[in-house]
Amino acid sequence: MIIEKFSIGMGDRFAHQGQAQLRAVIEGRKLGLEIVPVWNKSNREHTIVKTEPASLRGEADAAVQALGWDGPYHVDADHINLTTVDRFLEASDFFTLDVADYVARPTAPEEIARFVSDAGGLIGSLCIPGLEHPLEISEALARATAAKFLYAMQEAGRIYRHIRERKGRFVTEVSVDETDTPQTPAELLLILFMLSRENVPVQTIAPKFTGRFNKGVDYVGDPARFEQEFDEDLAILAYAVKEFGLPQSLKLSVHSGSDKFSLYPIINRLVKKHGAGLHVKTAGTTWLEELIGLAEAGEAALIRKIYRGAYSRYEELAAPYSTVIDIDPAKLPSPDEVDGWSCDHFAQTLRHIPSNPAYNPHFRQLLHVAFKVAAELGTEYTGALERNAEVVGRNVTANLFERHIRPIFG
Ligand SMILES: [Zn+2]
Fold first, then answer.
1. Which pLDDT tens digit goes with each residue over 321-333?
2. pTM given for the model
3. What is the spatial distance between Cα 64 and Cα 286, in angstroms, rounded to a whole number?
4. For the chain, which residues make up each domain, given as ranges?
């Protein structure tokens, strides 16, 4: 199964916005943007919301049918590993092999030696088309990179083979984004070489980029440094396809955490410059649009209750996301204060319009990780989504289209 050139990952925690999300892709198509929708849900999200992967497949199929989408689409088993993949096998046709937890696991010295020997052609001064300077890879760097990543990429091979033995056609992504340090372009090249040695037909790869990709808020870091790194990564991927025999469709997957507005113009420009493909994953931004829509609809009691729950359970909710959020508790309004807000003020504080003085990224990040609170409300929450489907859906579509698809792919 070959992944198309441009694709957008969309997450939907409560499985009510499939059509609203697909509408955003259709809006893109009207402008001539051919983007393939991919519905993604991680094992972590399924566990927190207590859903099964079949529900995501059902949602995707239903949305496609309802809106008469005649293009390709995929269902991504996001961030799985050998211990979690099995329940996704039936419903998914896209698998994100998350091997971040296996980074820096010890590898036998003879394995490392064999890798360094196999990588001999890459060692030295390597001219890669599109790179301003030759890539310098010393034997010591190759050895250190193997010590850090070889076990993880062998693990990717084990997960890939486990799926392949049970499943016919699927797209393989490898992710190492949820680690502590970003991978340099040289490391990315060696990682791709490791995957080719494992015969993993990787089509999308999610490195960790420089800077902070906090959930639901803009990039924190140096955009110029990101630009240089992204530019180099694109050159490296093209080289790896040619030299290592990896799939022609290989492209970067940006696990954006959504809402990286200051990076989207850079990504847009560089993808065009290289004639590259691109996959961008978003997820929680849709759940936040649900809350914004509910605020617009005047569901004051419900949104205040969710905020109160989120505020009082801050530590519990933030813990699983500690590497991808930066919340200053001092900048969070108290629930009593929020109870005094109008619904419109709630929506403006939450909606990601950086120029709006009411916008509060701390408030937004807290609610981003608070979907567990809404999940526990069960039908009290989903009933409100159904009652207000139109206004909620309008916000979901506009957010994905105007703030994501258009600046990234337009
Ligand atoms: Zn990720």
1. 888 899 999 999 9
2. 0.96
3. 18
4. 6-284+402-409
